[in-house]
Amino acid sequence: MQKRIFGITGREVAVIGQGTWHIHTAGRRVSVAAIQSGIELGMTHIDTAELYDGAETIVAEAIAGRRDEVFVVSKVLPQNASRRATIRACEQSLQRLRIERLDCYLLHWRGRHPLADTIAAFEELKQQGKILAWGVSNFDVSDLDEAVGLAGEGRIACNQVLYHLGERAIEHAVLPWCEKHDVALVGYSPFGQGSFPRAQSHEGQVLDAIATAHDATPRQVALAFLTRRAPLFAIPKASRLEHTTENARAADLRLTDQELARLEKTFPRSGPPRSLPMG
Ligand code: NAP
After folding, report:
1. pLDDT tens across 77-111, in order?
2. Strand partners, 16
3. Is the pLDDT of residue 163 over 90?
4. Which of 85, 200, 224, 270 is the most exposed place for a label (fewest CB within 10 A)?
5. Domain boundaries, the chain
């Protein structure tokens, strides 16, 4: 499994990780087994959140006895992101996950609490050793600038954003910003939330042709494109074993410059968005 440095944490983290939103719908036993297989295949970057109904307890079961192998990320809801409630939310996530420390703790999206208060809580959690690092999610450049203005350079580990072949809005400004500031950019919903190109479509056929050349699958091609360079990471969610296996194998796929150009042309990005799209 390909790894790369996760921004300012200095930690080598699996480029393709595992999301856990709605993972419980497959049933506890199946979802625990899917995450465990993913870990065995190297997808040790695990994304969860207090929002994701029961997912943290499923992750707890999946990572029991192998804490040192995994990089665990969770998120505080905006309505809990006051100075005191952020600390409490983190402690509750740690309890549900049955671990002593999160590798990265994110603000899920911006809400009514002042960002300064959330950041102060994140820094306190870091000092207490309850988190290794903190980051943000669904932050546009103006939010990122504000966060750096408050926290200083070298404090934000990552920004987690919507990114798939049909939604490349982050490439206009957020990706260059993250490159410049050494912030890991983690793309969520890499398969487009149910809108993955159908095999019969022109887009599907292009993906299929590139996949065939590598003895790979269209979804593996998509993941390879979405993680084609630093600081990009992807966190597909899979509760079926065959999906987990397919996603993990994408990490070893290297697309040629011509293939990347063909994908760029087939999935053109739209103009700069007024506001960052969210899933
Ligand atoms: P996704 O990963 O793009 O898609 C998940 C769907 O794709 C599931 O139905 C899954 O099926 C299917 N799938 C996975 N691998 C497949 C494969 N190889 N072949 C065919 N189908 C496959 O969508 P997502 O769950 O929205 O996004 C991923 C993660 O990002 C979430 O789980 C969550 O951790 C994170 N996220 C974060 C935010 C945020 O605001 N920060 C928002 C949304 C999501 P099975 O489950 O049946 O295997």
Report:
1. 999 999 999 999 999 999 999 999 999 999 999 99
2. 234
3. yes
4. 200
5. 3-266
Q: How confident is the model at residue 227 (pLDDT cuts 50, 70, 90)?
A: very high
Minimum CA distance residue for ligand 1 atom 36 = 188
SS3 for the chain is CCEEECHHHCCEEECECECCCCHHHHCHHHHHHHHHHHHHCCCCEEECCCCCCCHHHHHHHHHCCCHHHCEEEEEECHHHCCHHHHHHHHHHHHHHHCCCCECEEEECCCCCCCHHHHHHHHHHHHHCCCECCEEEECCCHHHHHHHHHHHCCCCEEEEEEECECCECHHHCCHHHHHHHHCCEEEEECCCCCCCCCCCCCHHHHHHHHHHHHCCCCHHHHHHHHHCCCCCEEECCCCCCHHHHHHHHHHHHCCCCHHHHHHHHHHCCCCCCCCCCCCC
Find out if CATH 3.30.2400.10 is the number for domain 3-266. Answer: no
pLDDT of amino acid 148: 98
Q: How far is the CA of 265 from the centre of ligand 1 (A)?
A: 25
Mutate which of 16, 18, 20, 21 for ligand 1? The one with the most ligand atoms within 8 Å of its CB, which is 21
Percent of the chain clearing pLDDT 70 (strictly above): 100
Length of the chain: 279
